[in-house]
Amino acid sequence: MNRSRAALVLIPLALLTGCGGSTGQADPAGRTTGITGSPSSGVAATGGTGSAPPAVQDPPDAQDSPGARSPQGRTSAPQAPPTGPEPPTSTAAVRVERHPDEPPLVTGVRFAEHGGYDRVVIDFRGDLPGYTVDWVPELVQDGSGEPIDVEGGAYLQVTMLPANAHTESGTPTLTGGPILQAGLGNVRSVVKTGDFEAVVGVGIVLERRAGFRVTEQKQPNRLVIDVAH
């Protein structure tokens, strides 16, 4: 009789021992793996003994949500927004030769300030022309050579050829100015210096001499001059 009672007592203890691991399993790092919430879309949750929680990719706007909770319960630091190109450092002149069948038309000049540099963009209709971007002691009118009354600490001259800033009927395609006030980090103003015998000139008036770079972009065709602050 005593043996039967002992057996009956042992059976519930065995049942309790067999259910004790259903709340979670310890992984090698000492954490308890289990259900931590639904995984984010596009990420497969892979289970298994000793497996770590699934890696969760931040959504595209995660950098705008500081203090987001990670699956491990830690607070993640805000991500830095993507950065653009580094400010230019070279001060060497840039010269590119081209001979398009028809002189392209200069249709616009625009500018904007970016992180660490200013950008001047010259728009074209047609192919890109040849061009020179170089330092000059002062800005002068193409053709006459008369000085242009504009003050600055340094001057970059952009000369494009062959190119025109007017149609065959003489209608200007580059309007406004001739001095376009900019007031950026280094670029004070942008000046139209001429449209004479298939040569178009644009001067960039700076606060100080600094590194610059020239790049070409297409669709539409344009010339981009970045000047460091």
Automatic annotation (TrEMBL):
Residues 1-24 form the signal peptide. The keyword Nucleotide-binding does not apply. It comes from the Bacteria. Residues 51-66 have a biased composition (Low complexity). Residues 105-229 form the AMIN-like domain. Residues 21-93 are annotated as: Disordered. Residues 79-88 have a biased composition (Pro residues). Keywords: Signal. InterPro entries: AMIN-like. This is AMIN-like domain-containing protein.
